[in-house]
Design a protein that fits this description.
- By secondary structure, the protein is α/β, with parallel strands linked by helices.
- The protein has ten helices and 21 strands.
- It has helices spanning 2-15, 23-36, 52-55, 71-77, 111-116, 121-127, 137-145, 379-386, 392-405, 414-431, and strands spanning 85-90, 93-94, 107-110, 148-154, 164-170, 177-179, 181-187, 192-201, 207-217, 222-229, 235-245, 250-257, 262-271, 277-286, 291-300, 306-315, 320-329, 337-346, 352-355, 358-361, 367-375.
- The strands form two sheets. Strands 3, 4, 6, 7, 9, 11, 13, 15, 17, 19 and 20 form an eleven-stranded mixed β-sheet that branches.
- Residues 174-403 form the SUF system FeS cluster assembly SufBD core domain.
- Belongs to the iron-sulfur cluster assembly SufBD family.
Length: 434
Amino acid sequence: MLLEKIIENHNEFLESLRHRFLDKKRKAALQRFERMGFPTKKDEEYKYTNLKEITEKGYNFFPKENHNITKEQLDSLHLGEENFDWITFVNGKLHKELSKVSIENVEFLSFNYALNDEKHREVFDNYFNTIASTDSAFTNLNEAYCKYGFFLKVPKNVVIEKPIHIFYISQNQEENTFYNTRNLLIVEEGAKVEIIESHHNFDSTYVLTNSVTEIFTYPNAKADWHKLQNDNDTSYLIDNTFAKQEKDSLTTVNTFSFGGKLVRNNLDFIHNGSNINSFMNGITIIGKDQLVDHHTAVHHNFPNCESYQNYKGIFNGKSHGVFNGKVFVDKIAQKTNAYQQNNNVLLSEGATIDTKPQLEIFADDVKCSHGCTVGQLNEDALFYLRARGISKKEAQALLLYAFANDAMQNIDIEPLKEKISKLLAEKLEVDIEF
């Protein structure tokens, strides 16, 4: 159903835009998508993730722009970040009156506006879709239909002191709605920026978001991107993030998955120089019949680089987790240090996890390790806490909190760390049955 509608609506979509210079690229991307079709469980990369629930529904490709978001609803999404900047998209459209932007000396535009601005044509020629994979059905679909999202370029040696929180909100939609959001972040030499991204569906109708983010981090620059995934049970998110780093740069992507019916995170790091540091951390806490799938890849193409992956999962009810982490070390990438760990706790008999850390190493002077664990709470530790007068419920919650906590250690934004801690505590109290 969805496949036919995607093809059927594309000409109408192109006519609604003014991005004529992208028409050929969009049509070529749609043709690639049409040849591939949506992934099925026969595809190795989607072996454990069944997308039928998503692809057999019908969606509206042209969301209604009108909304009635209240201040109270918006306030409930914030982290208490009075000193942050924030950018609010509602039903795909950037709303300045719901945003707070004080950043200076940077280029910030909504993606749609940037595409229509002649002076940014060269930027899009040099960056747009240059690292996003054309081998993925979802990235091709996004290129064919992308319109919503933001473009941010941080010039050389500019340090943005305030974190920027990006809100994607869907509300007042009478039909199931399909968003193809697109983000482009360019952090030039010596610059620094921190982004928080969150998606929120306020309707009982289903929302499918197919998001693609491209991050370019130049020498001695630092880019941190934090994904806060805590949406409702009528939300599907396919998130595709690609980060290309130049020498002496540092990029972090933290992914906190607490909500959403089905979430698939595809994360791809590309090293394009030496002395690069890449950090990937994730915490997943889900229950009922939710599914969260993390697929990561780090391409070590140069010597003297480091990457760290630390993913923790807590699964209850009939929830299902997937982790597939890949590290590729090229033959010239000597002195590589790559660490990858995925630890999981199953809280019920119906919960499942499929985990597969992978290393492909073609260099001989490297330090690479990977591992995964799947288990239940330690009975000795439970006994130790209960012997000191702590109830079973509190003891289990404390152990689970401690289990997940180390994946938050490199969050520099204190309000975000507090928010994650609160969500962690809430999830442990609400979703765990004792």
